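I wish you would study the pair of lines that follows with an eye to the fold:

===
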Amino acid sequence: MFIFSCREKHSQLHRLDKMICLTTSVGTRHVGSRMKCLTAAWTKTNQPLLCSSTSSTNHCNLKHSERLCHISLIGELRNCLCPPNNNNSTTFIRSYSTSTQQPTYSSKCLLGERDRFNAVMVDLTHEGNQQFIADNGYFGNILADSTSKWQKDGTIAIWIRVPIAHSRLIPVAASHGFSLHHTEGDNIYLSRWLLDCPSRLPAYANHQIGVSGFVLNEEKEEVLMIQDKHRIVRWKFPGGLSNFGEDIPDTVVREVWEETGIKTEFQSVLCFRQQHNMPWAFGISDIYIVCRLRPLNFDLNICKDELVDAKWTKVNELLKDPNHTHLTVRVAKLIQHGLKYGFDSVDISMEELPSVYKNTTYKLFHKPLPPSL
């Protein structure tokens, strides 16, 4: 393996070390053209450039004759990197070795952001980390050095965000003690607990949020019911899963509109259900929230991709039909109680309050307080 260091003068008269690592298994006649291409690419950037003519994961498995070229190639490589007439830079061989070990780069470290829990998040999509991910072996060395440094600094854990385009780095990180934590879009998140005790890292989100709307026509005491294509045997309330970052009132209004063409106004939360080990949701837990809505129109226009039918049904009929679920019957009883004694007796109200996190708010749900409070 040949390792070269080139020192280049800049306008501010400071020097930057640039490491160029070339492993070649091709014959002598190909090295000149390959190195000229490498040099042309290198001169356009100030970033370290890694080039390999073999798979980076198999360097240690190459035969001796494939791993190294004859020592006479050094002169050609030197001329490619720094032509004799160039007086602004000097080139010298830092090391030449027949060892199968990868070189160490102890002076470099992955860029990471420390959180308030004293854990470090390393984002491999960050521009400053791009120089470390071109080669699997190089990344492994940098990761080992970085982990060692952070352990000495008292860091409790390391997170790594790996874009799917660089998923080949996951086995490298796994060999250094990292494990899969979760995925999000086109990114995979790895973690490693650094303290000598059981990990206290939080598990990834294990609940999903579903919302349905009890769309009540108070004048006729009717509720909007739908017949789902995937659950034709029962009628139910319209609704669906909440999108990422979507508030509960926005979810239920959107879902009712998309499924039935009925525009609504959020009134309150009536109840919610928690159920574990959902079979169609990869075994995670489910929170299902039922909201009371006021309809703004009444003409149905169903989404035929999702529904078989939709209709307005008398609230008291929900109590008579044995095919309805226990949840449907219980919510119908809440609505009847509200119609008789006022919805303040059953509603869970929502209020937006400022969060402890700067420039953010949250929604708080609770029984309405007396006006005096």
